[in-house]
Amino acid sequence: WDLIKNYDDMSWHPGIKSVKGSGSNDKGAVRTLTLANGGTITEELKAYDAAKMSYKYKITEMSNTGTIKHAGQDEPLPVLPVGNYAAELQVSDKGGKTEVEWVATYYRAYVNNNPPAELNEEAADKAVSGVLKTGLEALAKKAGSAAAHVEIDIKR
Fold this sequence. Notes:
Blueprint: E1 16-21, E2 30-35, E3 40-49, E4 54-62, E5 64-70, E6 73-78, E7 82-94, E8 97-108, H1 121-142
Antiparallel strand pairs: 1-2, 2-3, 3-4, 4-7, 5-6, 7-8
């Protein structure tokens, strides 16, 4: 919990280059992540419970990496190909072992029928799974756990 309890500190995640935030763990706090690839994601803290070692947040804004042509229209490509992304990070003690659960809910970035490959469910699942897996593996390594098990479970 000590590694992730500060909402403005994501130094444990290799995909995050820097974080600018309000410096608080209060509901409504905003942080802006600058990604290793240069993109940005702005998130709002929706709930924080130190006693339960958990917090919830939601993406409120993202930069784009460019545009693609789809069905005669220019479609923006967000740095994370998702919409309406919300997540919860929770730490718990499981028989003397630490378990970190990171649950994310989201939609694909393209809300209309027949999405382009860059903005469909598969692209969203691959991108989010990559963020979670990379983050959890790095967190386990930083905590000194050589026997970490990371499991990604996608449900529709």
